[in-house]
Amino acid sequence: MTDDALVIFTPSGKRGRFPLGTPVLQAARQLGVDLDSVCGGRGICSKCQITPGYGEFPKHGLTVAADALSEWNAVEDRYKRIRGLIDGRRLGCQAKVMGDVVIDVPPESQVHKQVIRKSATDRVIEMDPATRAVYVEVAEPDMHEPSGDFERLAQALKDQWQIEDVEADLTLLRRLQPVLRKGEWKVTVVLNKCNHDARHRLLDIFPGFDERPLLGLAIDLGSTTIAAHLCDLRDGRVLASSGLMNPQIRFGEDLMSRVSYAMMNPGGDVEMTRAVREAMNTLAKALATEAQVPPEQIYETVFVCNPVMHHLLLGIDPVELGQAPFALATSSSLSFPARDLDLTAINPAARTYVLPCIAGHVGADCAAVALSEEPNKSKDMVLVVDVGTNAEILLGNETRVLACSSPTGPAFEGAQISSGQRAAPGAIERVEIDPVTKEPRFRVIGSDLWSDDPGFAEATKATGVTGICGSGIIEVVAEMRAAGILDAGGLIGGPDQVGTARCLPEGRTFSYLLHDASAEGGPRILVTQGDIRAIQLAKSALYAGARLLMDEMGVDTVDRVTLAGAFGAHISPKHAMILGMIPDVPLEKVVSAGNAAGTGARIALCNVAARNQIEEVVRHIHKVETAIEPRFQEHFVNASAIPNAVEPFPNLATVVTLPDVSFNTGGGGDGGRRRRRG
Amino acid sequence: MTDDALVIFTPSGKRGRFPLGTPVLQAARQLGVDLDSVCGGRGICSKCQITPGYGEFPKHGLTVAADALSEWNAVEDRYKRIRGLIDGRRLGCQAKVMGDVVIDVPPESQVHKQVIRKSATDRVIEMDPATRAVYVEVAEPDMHEPSGDFERLAQALKDQWQIEDVEADLTLLRRLQPVLRKGEWKVTVVLNKCNHDARHRLLDIFPGFDERPLLGLAIDLGSTTIAAHLCDLRDGRVLASSGLMNPQIRFGEDLMSRVSYAMMNPGGDVEMTRAVREAMNTLAKALATEAQVPPEQIYETVFVCNPVMHHLLLGIDPVELGQAPFALATSSSLSFPARDLDLTAINPAARTYVLPCIAGHVGADCAAVALSEEPNKSKDMVLVVDVGTNAEILLGNETRVLACSSPTGPAFEGAQISSGQRAAPGAIERVEIDPVTKEPRFRVIGSDLWSDDPGFAEATKATGVTGICGSGIIEVVAEMRAAGILDAGGLIGGPDQVGTARCLPEGRTFSYLLHDASAEGGPRILVTQGDIRAIQLAKSALYAGARLLMDEMGVDTVDRVTLAGAFGAHISPKHAMILGMIPDVPLEKVVSAGNAAGTGARIALCNVAARNQIEEVVRHIHKVETAIEPRFQEHFVNASAIPNAVEPFPNLATVVTLPDVSFNTGGGGDGGRRRRRG
C-alpha cells in the first residue's frame, strides 16, 4: 500500500497522483479539471457533485475498490436529506481520495457548462459569464489590524478565490457592514468581471450562502422589433423570451426617417431615447413576470443593435449617421452601469455591455451575427445575410471577412406592399401556384392546412385570411415568376397573355388575385405591379450588397449562404433564389440561423471571453461602403431582373426552369415602371 | 560650421546636440527637460516660453551668437501683439536651434512647477495634477476607415500626447460629435488620470484651443470646521480659501455624539450625510464666487477627514465606529465621480479623491498630516500632533511611523470651559500673569494691544472682551501654574494661600478672576476649578497618546514636535509644555505646521503621484489603539498633574521654574476632583 493514489477524471481524462486524504475538489483544482464550486469547498453549495466509478476500468488499466473514496459523511448526509442528491453522487469537497479512483464530472458540475443552442445550426455556448456569485468567509475586524471591512472582504476573495482587483461603489460600501455582520462574516457576493482588464466589480452582497439565480438580459434592439432573452447566468438557460414592437416606430418606420425626425425636431432624439429606454424597462419586467423571478435579480444586460438604434439607446443624437461620412460617435464596445440607460426595473447595480459597431451603417447587430455565425472560422466561403429593414451582409472565411449593409427597406417585412402585413395569425406565409392552371394555394400563419385542403375555412375562421407577410410575399412573387405570370423584367402579364382571369387590370398594369374573400365580406388579396416593384427594389439592394462583397473578395460564387434574422428563418431558399435575392448556390447550402443577432447577444452574455473575441474579430472585418461604390449601382440594376439580368443561376436551373416569357412588348404594360422610375 | 549644435538648458543643466532647425520644444522633449505645452507645439498655448541667453557663458565654455536661434517669426509676433510676451522670451515651439545656445526655462514654463506653500515650514508642492487639459487635432471621419469619432480622438491623444487608455462615459459621448465639428476637429479635452492604473477619463471637451482654468477643491472636513481651498490645477495657486461650520454640529458637538445620533435615530446618518453634502455645495459656490470663477470649472475635489466624517460624507452609517473594534467600512483611498456625493454645484463630470484612513480612529485627515509633514522622511524622531476634538498623533522617522488618536474632547476648542468660546474677535488669546502680584494682562483676537496698554479699551470697543479661546485657555492655565495660583495637582489656591483677591471662592473650590467688566455691564471672565479639570482631562489624553507611541517606539524623548491643526498654529510652545500637553523638548524644537491636514489635501490635489505615495506610507504606518492599552490609562493618570506626576521636563526647567506649591492639604479643596471622578 502506497501513501498516494491515482485519480482519473472523466470526461477530461486528466489524471494525477495525490496523497491519501486529498479531497476530490482539491485534486480537481490542482489538475485544472473543470469542477464547479460556489462555496469554496465548504459543503454548502453542492456544485461540486461528482460520480465515482467503481470496479474494472480496462481502458485505464485500473480496478477501483469500494473504499477508494472516504466514507459518506455527515455533511453529505445532511445535504442529501435536505436538498436531495442523485444516488451514486458524492460532494467533491467532502469525498477524499483513499485509493486509485475514476471520477466522472457530470455536465451540471462543470463551471464551463456547454449550453446547446436551440437552432438549426446547434451551436454550443460555453458558460463563462461576466457576472457570477461566490461564497466567501471574511476575517473579523481586529483592533490591532485596522483594515476596513471591504479590504478584508477583498483579501478573502483573493485568498479563497484568487480574485484580485475588486472594486465597490458607494452604494455597495453603504450596505457592506450590516450584511457582513448579519451573515456572521460569511457572505455571498455577486461579482462582475470586466473583459478589458482584471478588475472585478462588486455588484451585490448577501448574508450567508445565497443561492438566488443571477439573471441576464440579451437584447436585440431592432428598428422594428425588440427581441430579448432572459437567461440564467449560472447555466445559460433561457427562462423567457419576448418580442416587443420598437415604440420609436411612431417617430418613423425606418432608420433614416428617425434620423430625419431627430434633425427636424429639436429634442427629437431625446424623445426617441426615452421611448426606447422605457420599452426596455417594460420588457425586463414582462420577462421577469413570465419567468416568475424578481427583476432585481437581473444583473447584466447585453445589447446588440444597428448604429442608429445604438446611438438612440445611448442617448447620442444620430444625426451624423444620416449623412456621409456616416461617423459613429463611438465604434468600440461599451461597458457601463445599466442605470446610465435609466434601466430602473432591474438591479440598480446591473451592468450593461454593448457589442462594438463595425461601421456607421454596420452595427453591433452585425457584430453579433458574426459572433454567432463565425464566418471568420469558416473553411469555405460563407455569405451571411441578416434580412431586415436594413440588410447586414457578411462574406468571408477564416482568412478574411467583409461586411456591408444595404438599404432593403421594409418590403421584406410586409410594409409598402398593398396587402402586406407583419407576421401574425391570418397572414399568408406559404404560396404555391400551379404552372398550368395558374391557380394558387397558400397557407396562413396559425394553421397547418393549405387553402385547398378540406377544413381550411373552419381552421382559419378565427382570423380569416388577412394579408401577406414577408415570407409569403417572397413566395408569391417567386411562384408568379415560375408560373409565367411574371416576366424576367418584373412585369405581370394580362389575362390574355398569361391565360388566367386572376390577372386583373389596374389602370395600365395588371394585378394577380391571390385570394378573394369579398363575397364573405373579407379582403381581396392582390399582388399589384407596385408590390412587384417594391420587392424588386428590396431584393436588388440585398443582392447588390452581396455581389459587391464578392467583387471585393474576388469570387464569383460562394460556398454557402446563411439567412439570419427572425424573418430569414422563414424564407424558403428556393423562392429566395428564384427571386435572385441571394447568389446562386446549391439549395442545400442555404441554411437559416434564426435570430443570429439575438444569439450573438446571448453568447456575449454567457461568455465574457466571447466579448474579447468579437472585439478582435470586428477589428479585422473589412467594411465595404455601398453608398459610394459605383459597382453597387450596376449590380443593383442588373439584379432588378428576376432572378438577374446578367448573372447565371446554374444551381437554380437544376431545380426549376423559369419560363421564358416577356410582357414588355405589349405596349403600355410597362407604364408602372416608367411612372415609378420617373 | 557643423550641421548640428549644442543646446544647454538651465536650470536643469541638461544638454545635447541637435540638427540645425530643431525646434527648442522638440529638443527639450528629447532631453526630458521639463518644458510645458498644452497645444503640442502649434504656437497656440504659449506654455513653452523660453529665454535664450546670448554672449559669453564661461561656465559652459560657450559663446552664443545672436543668430543661435531662428528669427522671430509671425506666430510669435501675433502672439506677442495679442496676448503679450515678456521681452527676451521666445516660444519654444517656434524658435529653432541654429547654433550652440543656452536656453533658460522660466519656472512658469515648467509642467512640474513648484508651488511654495505659504506656511511656517515653507514646503514646496510639485505640480503634477490628476486633471489637466490638452489640445489635440483629431482625424476627420473617413468612410473607408469607419472608426468612431471617440476612437479617432483616442488615437490622436495617443499619437500627439502619448496618452493611452482613454475612457468616456455616455454623457461625454453624447456631447462629442457636435464639439468636434464646431472645433473643426481641433479640440481641448480635460483628462483625469487615475493614480491606480494608466487609465485617463475624459471629463470635458471644448471646441478649439480653450484656456479656461481647471480648478480643484481641497477640503479638510473636520467635526467642527470645514476648511477648503479652491486651487488652480495648472499652477497650484490658491484662488480662495474658506471655512464653514460643519452643519452636523446640530446633531452632536463631537463625533461620538453624532454616532449616537445615528444609532438612536433611524435615518439619522442619512440626515447628517445630507447636511454635510449640502454644506459642500454651499462652500464650493462661495469659493467660486469669491475667486470670481464659474463653479463648473471645478473638476476635482480631494477630501481629508476623520473616520466618522469620512463615513458620513460617503453615506455610510458610522455606527461601527462607535464601538469596538471600530471597524471601518473601507480604509483604502477612494476615487469616484463627485456626483456620487451629490456635489451638484461643481462640474457634473468632476472626480473625487478621498485619502486613505489609517484605522477606525485615525482617519484620512491624519494621513493628510503625514503627507504634509512627512514624518516618514524625517531623520530625527518627530512627534506630530494634530490638535482638535480628537487629537491625531504621529511619531516616527524614516525607519518607522506610529499613529494613534486620543479623545481630547472639545476643551481645547473653548467648549466645556465656563468662559470658553471659539476663536473670534474679542476672545482672549494671550495671557501673562505676574508671578509676584498675580495680576494678569492679556490680548484679545482683533487687537495687538495688551489689556494694560493705553488705548486697549478703545481698541477693543467694538467687540469687548467676550471670553477665552483655546490658545488663551492653555496660556492662562499654564500662567496660573507658573505664578503659583495652581498647584501641580491642578487645584486653584484660595486668596490667603495665593495672596490675591482674584482667587474667589466658588462653593468648596476657588476660581481665578481673569477679567471683570461687570461694572460696564460686561462679563466676568473666570477660570474655574471645573475649567482646570476639563483642561487636565484634555491635555492628559493628548500626552498619554504621545507617550504611548513613545513606549511603542522604545524612546523616552523625541527630537522635535510639530503642532498641526488650525488651533495648533496658535498654541504657545512654552505654555503647552508647562501644561505637560506635549513631551519635553527644547522649546525651539516645537514648531507649528498650521492646517497640515488641509495642506495634505492640497498636495494630493496638485500632485497625483503624492496619492500613491501617501497610500504606500499609510500601509506602513503602524496604528496603536489607545482604547485597549492599559499603559494609556497609566500615562493618563500621571499626566493629569501639571506638567506631569512622574515624567521629568528637563528642557522646560531651563526656561521656567514652576513653584513648588500644594493646595491639596487645605481640606475640602479637592472636592472638585473627587466629585468629577466619582
Automatic annotation (TrEMBL), chains A, B:
<dbReference type="InterPro" id="IPR052911">
    <property type="entry name" value="Corrinoid_activation_enz"/>
</dbReference>
<dbReference type="InterPro" id="IPR027980">
    <property type="entry name" value="RACo_C"/>
</dbReference>
<feature type="domain" description="RACo C-terminal">
    <location>
        <begin position="381"/>
        <end position="652"/>
    </location>
</feature>
<dbReference type="InterPro" id="IPR042259">
    <property type="entry name" value="Raco-like_middle_sf"/>
</dbReference>
<protein>
    <submittedName>
        <fullName>DUF4445 domain-containing protein</fullName>
    </submittedName>
</protein>
<dbReference type="InterPro" id="IPR001041">
    <property type="entry name" value="2Fe-2S_ferredoxin-type"/>
</dbReference>
<dbReference type="InterPro" id="IPR012675">
    <property type="entry name" value="Beta-grasp_dom_sf"/>
</dbReference>
<dbReference type="InterPro" id="IPR036010">
    <property type="entry name" value="2Fe-2S_ferredoxin-like_sf"/>
</dbReference>
<feature type="domain" description="RACo-like middle region">
    <location>
        <begin position="215"/>
        <end position="373"/>
    </location>
</feature>
<dbReference type="Pfam" id="PF17651">
    <property type="entry name" value="Raco_middle"/>
</dbReference>
<dbReference type="Pfam" id="PF14574">
    <property type="entry name" value="RACo_C_ter"/>
</dbReference>
<dbReference type="GO" id="GO:0051536">
    <property type="term" value="F:iron-sulfur cluster binding"/>
</dbReference>
<dbReference type="Pfam" id="PF17650">
    <property type="entry name" value="RACo_linker"/>
</dbReference>
<dbReference type="InterPro" id="IPR041414">
    <property type="entry name" value="Raco-like_middle"/>
</dbReference>
<feature type="domain" description="RACo linker region">
    <location>
        <begin position="120"/>
        <end position="211"/>
    </location>
</feature>
<dbReference type="InterPro" id="IPR040506">
    <property type="entry name" value="RACo_linker"/>
</dbReference>
